[in-house]
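The records we work with from here on pair a chain with its fold. These numbers are not coordinates but entries in a learned vocabulary of local backbone shapes. To see the layout at work, look at the sequence and tokens printed below:
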Amino acid sequence: MRVILPAANFHGLASAVLLITLAVPAQAVDEASVEPISNAAEVEKTRKMPTDATLEANGVLIGTITFDRQNVFDTTKPAEDKALYRLANRWHILTRQSVILAQLLFRKGDPYSRRILDESERLLRANDYIYDVKITPVQYANGTVDILVWTRDVWTIAPEISFSRTGGENKTRLAISEQNLFGRGTTIRVSRENNVDRVTTRLAFFDNNLFRSRTSLFLNLSNSSDGNTQQLQVQRPFFALNTHWAAGGSILNDNLEKQFYDLGHTVAEYRQKVDRQVLFGGLSAGLQNGWVRRWTAGLVYDVNRFSPVVEGTLTELIPEDRRLIYPFIGFELLEDEFQTSANRDQMERTEDFYMGMRFTMSIGFASKNFDADRDALIYSLGASKGFGSMDRKAILLTSTMSGRVDGGNADNTLANLSARYYSRQSQHWLFFAAVYGSWGEDLDLDNFLELGGDNGLRGYPLRYQTGEARLLLSIEERYFTDWYPFRLFRVGFAAFADVGRTWGDNPAARAPLGWLRNVGVGLRIVPTRASGREIYHLDLAFPLDGDPSINSVQILLQTKTNF
């Protein structure tokens, strides 16, 4: 029996264990159906809030904005009214009201819009330090409506303990992180990780609303046994549908050793140095008739240098250097269509799904006249669309394509297609199926496609097969229980089957083995009081194909952001 525990992140689990220790979109409305508000006193008398459509049709303005910031535990509930849960609440610093206010898309005096309230909810829910959000009108009088913003915090400071074991090699991670520093929405994290590739010490800093603005800052400094990484990104993105401009830039310096794999084992190696810098700006007319059009332009400096590993122990296989310096222009078309649901990829938590049509395009041209090493057209395309109802049956489609046109030849062409299908069978049961396909043509040597236990083929070692194309089909029967141990974890189960393969030769080893299949069962543990959206997977997977060295049972313990 072989144990595979790839990068199991116990941030949320450690938080919950710490607490155990302490304890022991608006629908379209026919205008004719909207009634004017003619008697505010009568509305107040009946204490009936007018509908969203009525408030919007009558040009009602937003009045007082009230905040109800809930702590980690709701001590009004007997099951959570415990002495040490109350102590945990006292130790926790609530998200500051100013942090929440800075992310709202409305202010006092603005026209009431249910769409704006819904989008503000989505923005707030995207924060790892907030478990859920509800924004509702609570009182109407004299042409204004008061708004209540309800949020629930989670525990954000905790030790992180991760461990894994593959083929006799131990991999661990020790860290301390705070994802809501002093209630200001700032993340800071220090970690030391020992994995199959390297030992890394890392410092990371992230703030999505720096100084209460719409500017985000991300900083990552890593020192590894085989190199180092420095990454900085500062940007004001298109943070909302009606955002009219964006700008930003990023810097990445990366110097690490990379390996080729065959049947889960390293067979060749090289060193890669990356120097990438991006500067961009964007303009948009905002949301118009349910659609958003955005234009971006910028400059890219992208240099990749490859060399042998000093005192290397594996076969040398060195990709060609690339020096691409180019301006680019991009376009995005976005439809305003979202749905919310629960018990799909998470448990008992509001989930936001984008269902509208989205199309993206970016084109750049590198030239030797601008210090590039070639004349090349660099392009990327993307499209996505959702169909159906997330409360019943729905399918989400996504496709991308990218590559270069160099001297009339298509180089490093990579096309991806994914389809995810959800079918609710009952309150507790959900059928899920997914297809992930990738096709490459004349791929750069450092960009070949891998398939194994670390990316969906759960019955096989990580990076088991490599090629220029791959296909993976996964089906799951998901069961969401009502079991809520210590009011800290949600528990679920899954039965699954995976089928996949790669095509094309591995540049460092043998040809792919063909179709590979596995079946299995799994336990899902979802922390509800800790920051992040981690779900802890404990899976037993049984491979049905593969080479004779494959063990009959694979045990996987890993952290994912979906069920």
User: Anything to note?
Assistant: The domain at 19-153 is CATH 3.10.20.310 (Ubiquitin-like (UB roll)).
